[in-house]
Amino acid sequence: MKYTDYVDLNYRPAKSDLVCEFYVEPAKGVSMKKATGAVASESSIGTWTTITKAPPRINKLGARVFLIKGNYVKIAYPFELFELGNMPQILSSIAGNIFGMKDIANLRLEDIKWPYQLMKSFEGPKYGIKGIRKILKIPKRPLIGTIVKPKVGLNSKEHAKVAYESWIGGLDLVKMDENLTSLKFNKFGKNVRESLKMRRKAEKETGEKKIYVPNVTAETTEMLRRARLVKKEGGRCVMIDIITVGWSALQTLRNENLNLILHGHRAGHAMMTRNPKHGISMLVIADIARLIGIDQLHIGTIVGKMAGERQEVTHISEEIEKKFVKERPVGHTLAESWGNIKPVFVICSGGIHPGHIPRIVKFLGKDIILQFGGGCHGHPNGTFSGAKAINQALCATMQNIPLKKCAKTHPELKMAIDKWGVVK
Ligand code: CAP
Ligand code: MG
User: Fold this and answer.
1) Phi and psi at residue 392, in whole multiples of 5°?
2) Rounded Cα–Cα distance for residues 293 and 124 (Å)
3) Is 339 within 8 Å of 288 (Cβ atoms)?
């Protein structure tokens, strides 16, 4: 088949097809038809030339470009092209060689509609929003958490002390930063034991359930060993950096079924998601992580230190928090099937402080985790006061009280606002 044979604008995708939406910019002198056909060909059964004696039945497995609207294109893939439960294989096909083809100037995978048969071959989140709320006994409000800072450098006892002050200051969740795994001055095992000891102490003193999130990102066997250790020591959650470990490792961790909440950090995602014309959307990455089984996932914020399109963040939050979870419109290809895949908590993090809370909650709703590193430990009076200020800002937001008014009677919040302001 020639490239242009993969374009069939009369084709209507079958329910079992996997459908990708791409942004496509052909290379100079290449027609849109040829460029999109090249994408469909290389990502399914084809190559740069025709294969002389290929059995004709194989043509049926070819992907079909069935919609071209400006630079946006939809391609349908027969379900048989994919191996059940094998995310790397699926992505080697639909998100593989095509990004480097000469006929293409730019290509971005914007969205994937997953057929039910393929979706059900993945575990999905073990806990999701409901499960995590149940563990913490927090039915409605956003969760609040912190990343221990400095990122690295503290020893395990110092680290655990920062965690303890954060919990008793009112935070629900404390996590290790992505750069910290098991370093000379802060070994993983000792870190977990010390921090969990402090978690138990904080739980006793506050009467609340708390979560510690050790970072198990490592080579796969070591990652599993560390996750098992967390379980054995009484932990409830682990963090994994989904891009740097790769989808395969994430699948391995999920399939191990350790009954741990999986917290997904996404360091490096912007290598692929930041260019609006080339790469992959954060929405697709979030869907993949969710299918595999992440319970909570970083999505960034539009207000913090990281670059992020307002549209991208809302899009993700709309998709995950509204459509996929509750009110997915009838008739949508994945309407029924996402029902089996539990909704995930989105984590708003990266350069945020108490003064951001009302705006983020207004924008993204309550099924979010608000996570503050510098915005907690950078408080003029340190971690304990920083955690209190975050708690006070959230309480005020939940009661629709302006932060500046609340600050009049809450000195920790006042100091935070004096340092960072309130973001409208
Ligand atoms: C936040 C954070 C996260 C970022 C990553 C950090 O710290 O722990 O890694 O949130 O970005 O080290 O930067 P701060 P994203 O609160 O001190 O900024 O969540 O967008 O993936
Ligand atoms: Mg970090």
Assistant:
1) -65, -40
2) 4
3) no
- CA–centroid distance, 349 to ligand 1, in Å, is 5
Residue 334, pLDDT above cutoff 70: no
| Residue-wise DSSP of 283-308 | HHHHHHHHHHT-SEEE---SSSSS--
Q: Is the CB of 199 under 6 A from ligand 1?
A: no
State how far the Cα of 409 lies from the Cα of 404, in Å rounded to an integer: 10
Q: Which amino acid is at 340?
A: N
* Strand 18-26 with 72-77, pairing: antiparallel
Q: Tell me how far apart the alpha carbons of residues 156 and 304 are, in angstroms, rounded to a whole number.
A: 28
Which residue is closest in CA terms to ligand 1's atom 15?
300
User: Model-level pTM greater than 0.85?
Assistant: yes
Q: Which of 117, 38, 112 is nearest to 74 (CA)?
A: 112
CA dihedral sign, ordered 126, 129, 132, 133: negative
Alpha helices in 11-111 (DSSP H): 32-42, 87-94
Q: Given this model, what pLDDT does residue 307 score?
A: 57
Q: CB–CB of 380/415 below 8 Å? A: yes
Coil/strand/helix, residue 132: helix
Residue 321 has a pLDDT of: 36
Residue 105 and residue 96 in contact, taking contact as beta carbons nearer than 8 Å? no
Which range has the worst mean pLDDT, 24-28, 54-58, 295-299, 362-366?
362-366
Element (H, E) at 117: helix 116-119
Three-state secondary-structure class, residue 318: helix
Test site for ligand 1: of 144, 146, 147, 360, most ligand atoms within 8 A of the Cβ: 147
Verify whether ligand 1 is closer than 6 Å to residue 349 (CB atom): yes
- Give residue 299's pLDDT band: very low, low, confident or very high (50, 70, 90): confident
Q: Is 217 exposed, middle or buried (0-12, 13-18, 19+ CB in 10 A)?
A: buried
Q: Tokens at residue 173, please?
A: 């969740």
The Cα 300–Cα 287 span in angstroms is: 15
**Domains of the chain and any CATH numbers:** 3-119 (3.30.70.150), 128-420 (3.20.20.110)
